Amino acid sequence: MSGNAVKVLGAGLAGCEAAFQIAERGVPVRLVEMKPRRMSPAHHSEGFAELCCSNSLRSDALSNAVGLLKEELRRSGSLILEAADATRVPAGSALAVDREQFSAYVTARMRNHPLITVVETEATDAEGEGITVIATGPLTSEPMAEWIASLTGKAGLHFFDAVAPIVEFSGINMDVAFFASRYDKGDADYINCPMTREQYDVFYNELINAREAELKDFDRQQQKELKVFEGCMPVEVMARRGYDTLRYGPLKPVGLIDPRVGKEYFAVVQLRRENTEGTMYNLVGFQTHLAFPEQKRVFSLIPGLENATFLRYGVMHRNTYLRSPGFLNAAYQVIERPNLFFAGQMTGVEGYIESAGSGFVAGVNAARVARGMEPLAFPRRTMLGAMAAYVSEGGIGDFVPMNANFGIVEPLGRKVKGGKSARNAALTERSLEELALVMDEIRA
């Protein structure tokens, strides 16, 4: 193996995708993986690219953002999509796989590739002059996490993911909701969803009785630690402290006057803009540990959100991720250390396919740098490029992990007849056209 091999740390979906893309471009790879010598609490097998929580890779429909992302990866030569298509099981319009076969397929491709050498050891740093891709995942071991923290500064690495749900602006009923700021201070930047007492009673009772997400073993200790942070308290836990707790907290109506009727309401849910374009809004103060279907059911009871499209649900779990904007560029490359790349959920992408997508972009670019080429910025109108742009630039406010969604893609700039489905179809068509224009550079 050449001493000029690119190191890839971690053999999850992102690491395997990155390693494959580098090797397919003629560059030797040393794939460093601590399994089976050491297992994280989430892992149960010795295979690579283990799907820990689900066998579903979500919708395969091109009208869906993650469906578009999968199609972009298919057309670009993704190993993870190749493996998924080879091991898929019936699941309607979703792409679901046999987990064991999927992992075995990827593991075989890694171990049998002539330019990939698997090194079974725990990575504790990425020191050295060579090119390295760090893809150690959201459960990065403590020594590696400490090294990354020393690289970024403590403020640049997060260990708890406590994020409120984000909805698409186009799905908010503005006949019910209204723009206003408390006491009319500053611009009317917040969307306010007003509640009468009767509406609050229904919402409150459903919220305090809603089903919470099942905790993984490795999340139980984290939940205990979260209890010391009042700012991270789940909205459902806050509600159980008393009927009026929310009304004196995130649902406080004081100073919020509906300009259409000139009055305050019994309670008000506020939504804050999540990106510059104003296509995404988050529910202020709604960090939650409710199961995803329960979030959809209960939060849709909020007046104005009856038909809201949830771009991401609220989460509270152990998740090591970078404050990537200003630290990584759109090639997933460390701005101050061009030989160092990151991939996977640690970068701030959320989800299996999104992790694979980041690994794909990081792998393509690590291979380009290894061959003396300039990194490739994927078009921002593609889902791959939109995710890379979000990771490198963020939105408004604190940086939070994000799924693939049409809210992060550059808007069309024109109205499309036929509603949301027609708009998504137009965005998908444009994305695939943009991808085709740079396919030769991607495959180079």
Describe what you observe in this structure.
By secondary structure, the protein is α/β, with parallel strands linked by helices. The protein folds into 2 domains: 284 residues, FAD/NAD(P)-binding domain (3-Layer(bba) Sandwich); 148 residues, Elongation Factor Tu (Ef-tu), domain 3 (Beta Barrel), CATH 2.40.30. The chain is built from 13 helices and 16 strands. Helix 1 packs parallel to helix 10, helix 2 runs parallel beside helix 10 and helix 3 crosses helix 4. The radius of gyration is 22 Å and the shape is globular. The two termini are 22 Å apart.
Q: Nearest-angstrom radius of gyration?
A: 22 Å
Q: Biggest sheet, strands in spatial order?
A: 10-11-12-13-9-14
Q: How would you state the average pLDDT, rounded?
A: 88
Please provide the count of β strands.
16
Strand content: 15-25%
Number of helices: 13
CATH superfamily of the largest domain, by name, is FAD/NAD(P)-binding domain
For this structure, the CATH topology of the largest domain is: FAD/NAD(P)-binding domain
Name of the top-level CATH class of the largest domain: Alpha Beta
Structural category:
alpha/beta
Shape: globular
Low-pLDDT segments, ≥5 res: 222-231
Q: Let me know the largest β-sheet.
A: 6 strands, antiparallel
How far the N terminus sits from the C terminus, by CA atoms, comes to 22 Å
Helicity, as a percent range: 25-40%
